[in-house]
Amino acid sequence: MAVISVAGKAARPTTHEGRDRRCRKVRQNLTAHGFLLGALLCFGFFTWYPMVREVVMSFQKTKRGRTSWVGLDNIDQLLQDPEFWQAWRNTLLFTLLALVFGFAVPFFVAVLLNELRHAKSYLRILVYLPVMMPPVASVLLFKYFYDPDFGLFNSILHTLHLPTSAWLNSPDTAMVSVVIASTWMNMGGATLIYLAALQGIPGELYEAAELDGAGLWRRVWHVTIPQTRLILSLLLLLQVVATMQVFVEPFLLTGGNGPQGSTTTVVYLVYQYAFNFNNYGAASALGLIMLVVLAGFSALYVRQSRKAD
Amino acid sequence: MSRTGLVRRSVVVAVAAGMSMSLAACGSSGTGGGDGASKVTVSVDCQPPVTKAAERKQWDEDVAAFGKLYPNVTIKSKDASPCEEPAPFTAQLKGKTQTDVFYTYFTDLAQVLDAGGAEDISAYVNETTVPALKDIDPSVLATLKDGGKLYGLPTSNYKMGLLYNRKLFKQAGLDPEKPPATWAEIREAAKKIAALGNGVNGYGEYSATNQGGWHYTAELYGLGGTMVSEDGKKAAFNTAEGRQVLQNLYDMRWTDNTMGAAQSLKWPDLMTQMAADKLGMYVGAPDDITYMVQTLKGDYEAYGMGPMPGAKAALLGGNDYMFKKGSSPEQIKAGIAWINLKYLTLGKGQFDYARTKADGLPVGLPQPFFFTGAGLAADNKAKAASATVPVQNYAPYLAASVPGKTEPAHAQQIYKVLDNAVSAVLTDRNADIPKVLADAETQVNQVLASLQ
């Protein structure tokens, strides 16, 4: 009985003991809560508040200093803008091309680097080097490469007696040129992530595959890709989200719109509305549409990954 | 009443009395910043940066001179170069963080008013506060008015024209004293200049960041066209003149090959090319010459300016100062007094040509250009007396006296569409000009409809 009684006491602390424990817990976690508060304030002011403001402003218009609610007028105005659809077509084209180049190329570079026996570190640095260059410097470099009269690329093509290209100066090739520059600038980071994932694959799997007579391609297809599926799908999502927000490359390479609007992207259009047309309502509405589309992609990804599990 | 309560009430009465006296002082001061009635601080942007030592020195001297005239006013200078960048400026308006007296471009009034950013200064501007008021070109002041109210004062003004490289003209066997005045003459001159080879282009044109649309407008005005209907609701550029602008560009780009293959150019690409003696001609403003010399290390002797091709009208441009919404009457009066001394008084501030010459800065450029009548005559005389740049290089531009014409309302939205039209003829050999222009017309009509 006495034992039961003691156990009962231990299970039900008195109010005084409970308060002590809570105070001790608060004291122990005070520093952690302090750090958390700082982070929450930063996110609150610089991320969440602007996002909420963007949603609010999407339904407002400012005229003669007076801001009023206009319902869906801003979205209606966007839908009437002929460049709205062109910007979406261009953005989707950029995303598609960026996935073809920017997703596949770093993966295969990583596979190649992983297969190498010598000079792996030097090559890794070489691949990562463009990421360390300021984007503006990289873009200006490519602007020179693409110059149709004096550029490096046309000089090489000319030397090889191959037909030259207008690169950024033709609506047919401008977007591809932007994608090539963008891939060169950004592939280093993705390559290193793939490389890290590849190095996490147990060596026995490759040894077993080799014993079964698998060549490089079959090892990649049956071992590497299944083993890195999670990283691949995560980077695919990140790539879609990042590439759909492309701005710097077309803005600096073609002035934003490019030949006949061929490189006008959605984010460039947001920039135009906000800073050239002083129409923050329409700019916010366009940003909101973009947010919904990207949220859709994210939801799709989550659904797909759940199915796969 | 307790002792504490008595003290509290006395303090409240004293503070209220002080406040009412201050307000009375504000309300009673009649002649602006110079009445000495109350201390006023006015923040003003566009102070030249330290890298522009001579301009900075002049600014500081003018602030000191102003301080002696108006000891109760403190000018709080904010340096900026360039004075306005459109994107940050728009953000400033949104955040209401512009200075009390803020620099604007000639075409900013609509967006400043939409943002609720400027005070009406009509009641404070008269021939007492701005003695040169009667000599300021009314068409320039009109760009600063809305609904009969005045919102700013000009500091500089220009009309667009044809800039050309005199050195290349001479090398190509052209007469640099007689710049081409029509598009046919420009085309012929461009052929001769491009024939020099070595990457030299005869003519250059912008076609990105809405500047293609801006130049299209300038060239259309030169031919006598207009961008929108009188009521501003419909596009009005799909005309013979509008087609001719695109046809001229197409012919020079593809038939004559005098514009080079690199397109999608934007400010300051053409200036960079001309300063490097790689470009013969382009449509621009007089202050491009200053940029080419001061920033790109060109030579004043190398550049000339002629009137806008066609000479029916020239697109107006320039800069002004406006007054932040919420400024007190004292601040507005002080700001007007500062602008008057720095920018609108012959022989002082920017019109102190003797000082400008002594400081090694150029004198004789056809800008600022907003005085008329006696003011213009006096300015020209003073400018000629201290000229340091070859004034005769701009004689064709000044002699033509082309009437000025302002930008259409919602200019940037319209320019955005026309950028694509200009870009089409410069990047597509198979461009169908009537279709390109018809598409642009449809799109501008859509844009204008959505803005009504």
What does the model show?
- The complex is a heterodimer of chains A (309) and B (452).
- Chain A has 309 residues and is mainly α.
- Chain A has 14 helices and 2 strands.
- Chain A has one domain (74-308): MetI-like fold.
- Helices cover 77% and strands 3% of the residues of chain A.
- Chain A starts with a helix and ends with a helix.
- Chain B folds into 2 domains: 33-159 and 317-386, 3-Layer(aba) Sandwich (D-Maltodextrin-Binding Protein, domain 2), CATH 3.40.190; 162-315 and 408-451, D-Maltodextrin-Binding Protein, domain 2 (3-Layer(aba) Sandwich), CATH 3.40.190.
- The N and C termini of chain B lie far apart (65 Å).
- Chain B is α/β, with parallel strands linked by helices.
- The model of chain B is unreliable at 1-36 (pLDDT under 50).
- The interface between A and B is large, with 37 and 44 residues.
Search tags:
heterodimer, A: 309 residues, mainly alpha, disordered N terminus, B: 452 residues, alpha/beta, D-Maltodextrin-Binding Protein, domain 2, 2 domains, four-stranded mixed sheet, 17 helices, 14% strand
Low-confidence stretches of chain A: 1-10
CATH superfamily of the largest domain in chain B: Periplasmic binding protein-like II
> Largest sheet of chain A, order of strands side by side?
1-2
**Span between termini of chain A:** 52 Å
CATH architecture of chain A: Orthogonal Bundle
In short:
With 309 residues, chain A is mainly α.
Compile the SSE list and pairings.
The complex is a heterodimer of chains A (309) and B (452).
Chain A: H1 2-11, H2 15-57, E1 60-63, E2 66-69, H3 73-80, H4 82-115, H5 120-132, H6 135-146, H7 152-159, H8 174-199, H9 203-211, H10 216-227, H11 229-243, H12 248-254, H13 266-276, H14 280-308
Antiparallel strand pairs in A: 1-2
Chain B: H1 3-28, E1 40-47, H2 53-69, E2 73-79, H3 86-95, E3 101-105, H4 109-114, H5 138-142, E4 145-146, E5 149-150, E6 152-159, E7 161-165, H6 166-171, H7 183-194, E8 201-203, H8 211-222, H9 240-255, H10 269-275, E9 279-284, H11 287-294, E10 303-306, E11 314-323, H12 329-343, H13 353-358, H14 373-386, H15 395-400, E12 404-405, H16 411-427, H17 433-451
Parallel strand pairs in B: 1-2, 8-9, 11-12
Antiparallel strand pairs in B: 3-11, 4-5, 6-11, 7-9, 7-10
